[in-house]
C-alpha cells in the first residue's frame, strides 16, 4: 500500500513538472506591425482568433498604453515579454522595470545593440555586457528576467570562439532569447547553441528561412524570406523538441513577411503537429 502511494506521489510530481514546463506557442506582436497601423483592436482580435494567448510586445502603435493593455486583457492575451531599447536599459532601467510590471511581463527583451554600420567588435560587446548586467540586476529585483535577442552579427570570431561566446560567458544578470532565423543567418546552428548554452536560453523566436538564402553577419535580410514554419531550411521541429527537453517554455512565432496573416495559422498547425513524447 505504501509503495502504491509513493508511486502515485511520483506520478503527481511528474505531471506537475510537465505542466510547469508546458510549452506555449505565442506571437511577437511586431509580426502584425503593418496591420496595427490600420486597426489595432482588429489586429489584437485576429491573434486571439488564432488561439494564441502568450504574446511578446511593448509597443502600443500610437494608442495610449492603458487603453492598449485593456484591449489585451479584453481578448485574453498574456504579455509574457515586452521589448526595451538598448538606450532605455542603459539610461533608465528602473523605468523599464516599471513598464514590465504594468504589463505583468516576466521578461524584458532587447533586440539590438547599436553599432556603426557593419562594424561590431569586442568593444561593442563588452559595453553591451556591462549595460545588460547592470540593467538586468535592476529587473531581477522585481522578478523580471532580461533577455538579449541576438541578430547574427555577434557570431564574428573572437579569440577561441565568437563575440557571442564572450557575451554568454560573461552574462551574470541576463539571458538569451534565441531567434532561430538570425542564429542560422549568422552562421550558427540553433540546436548546437541550445546544447552549448542550455541555461542561457529562456525564450525562442520561431522564424523559418526560405531555402537557398545565404546568411551573413550583418543582422539584415529581406523580410520576404520568412516562410511558414517547417517549410524552410531551419530544423524547426528539432529546435522545438530540444527546447522542450531543456525546459524552455515560451516560443514566439515571428513572421515579418507581407504574408503573415496567411502564414501564422499554417505555422501554428505545423507546431501543433510536433510530437513531444
Describe the protein in words:
- This protein is of the alpha/beta class and 277 residues long.
- 45% of the residues lie in helices and 17% in strands.
- It has a single domain, classed as Divalent-metal-dependent TIM barrel enzymes (TIM Barrel, Alpha-Beta Barrel), CATH 3.20.20.150.
- The protein is built from twelve helices and twelve strands.
Provide the β-strand percentage band.
15-25%
Mean of all residue-level pLDDT scores: 92
**Globular, elongated, flat, extended or rod-shaped: what is the shape?**
globular
> Under the CATH scheme, which class?
Alpha Beta
The run of helices and strands is: HEHHEHEHHEHEEEHEHHEEEHEH
Q: What do we call the CATH homologous superfamily?
A: Divalent-metal-dependent TIM barrel enzymes
Helix content: 40-55%
Query: Given the structure, what is the number of helices?
Result: 12
Major sheet summary line = 8 strands, parallel, barrel
Q: How many strand units?
A: 12
Which stretches are poorly predicted, pLDDT < 50 over at least 5 residues?
2-21
From the helix content, strand content and strand pairing, which structural class follows? alpha/beta
Order of strands, main sheet, comes to 1-2-3-4-5-8-9-12
CATH architectural arrangement: Alpha-Beta Barrel
Number of domains: 1
Summarize this entry quickly:
By secondary structure, this protein is of the alpha/beta class. The protein has twelve helices and twelve strands. Helix 7 runs parallel beside helix 8 (163-169).
Amino acid at each position: 500500500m505504501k509503495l502504491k502511494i509513493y508511486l502515485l506521489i511520483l506520478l503527481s510530481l511528474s505531471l506537475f513538472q510537465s505542466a510547469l514546463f508546458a510549452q506555449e506557442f505565442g506571437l511577437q506582436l511586431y509580426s502584425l506591425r503593418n496591420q496595427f497601423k490600420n486597426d489595432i483592436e482588429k489586429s489584437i482580435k485576429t491573434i486571439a482568433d488564432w488561439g494564441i494567448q502568450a504574446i511578446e510586445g511593448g509597443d502600443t502603435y500610437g494608442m495610449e498604453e492603458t487603453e492598449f493593455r485593456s484591449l489585451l486583457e479584453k481578448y485574453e492575451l498574456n504579455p509574457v515579454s515586452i521589448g526595451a531599447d538598448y538606450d532605455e536599459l542603459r539610461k533608465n532601467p528602473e523605468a523599464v522595470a516599471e513598464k514590465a510590471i504594468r504589463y505583468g511581463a516576466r521578461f524584458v527583451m532587447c533586440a539590438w545593440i547599436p553599432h556603426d554600420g557593419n562594424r561590431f567588435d569586442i568593444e561593442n560587446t563588452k559595453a553591451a555586457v556591462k549595460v545588460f548586467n547592470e540593467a538586468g540586476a535592476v529587473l531581477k529585483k522585481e522578478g523580471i528576467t532580461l533577455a538579449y535577442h541576438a541578430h547574427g552579427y555577434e557570431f564574428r570570431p573572437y579569440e577561441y570562439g565568437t563575440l557571442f561566446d564572450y557575451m554568454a560567458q560573461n552574462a551574470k544578470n541576463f539571458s538569451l532569447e534565441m531567434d532561430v532565423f538570425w542564429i542560422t543567418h549568422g552562421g550558427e546552428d540553433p540546436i548546437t547553441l541550445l546544447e552549448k548554452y542550455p541555461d542561457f536560453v529562456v525564450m525562442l523566436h520561431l522564424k523559418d528561412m526560405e531555402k537557398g538564402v545565404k546568411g551573413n553577419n550583418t543582422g539584415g535580410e529581406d523580410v520576404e524570406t520568412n516562410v511558414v514554419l517547417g517549410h524552410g531550411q531551419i530544423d524547426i521541429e528539432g529546435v522545438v523538441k530540444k527546447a522542450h527537453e531543456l525546459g524552455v517554455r515560451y516560443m514566439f512565432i515571428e513572421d515579418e513577411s507581407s504574408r503573415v496573416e496567411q502564414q501564422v495559422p499554417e505555422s501554428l498547425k505545423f507546431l501543433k503537429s510536433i510530437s513531444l513524447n
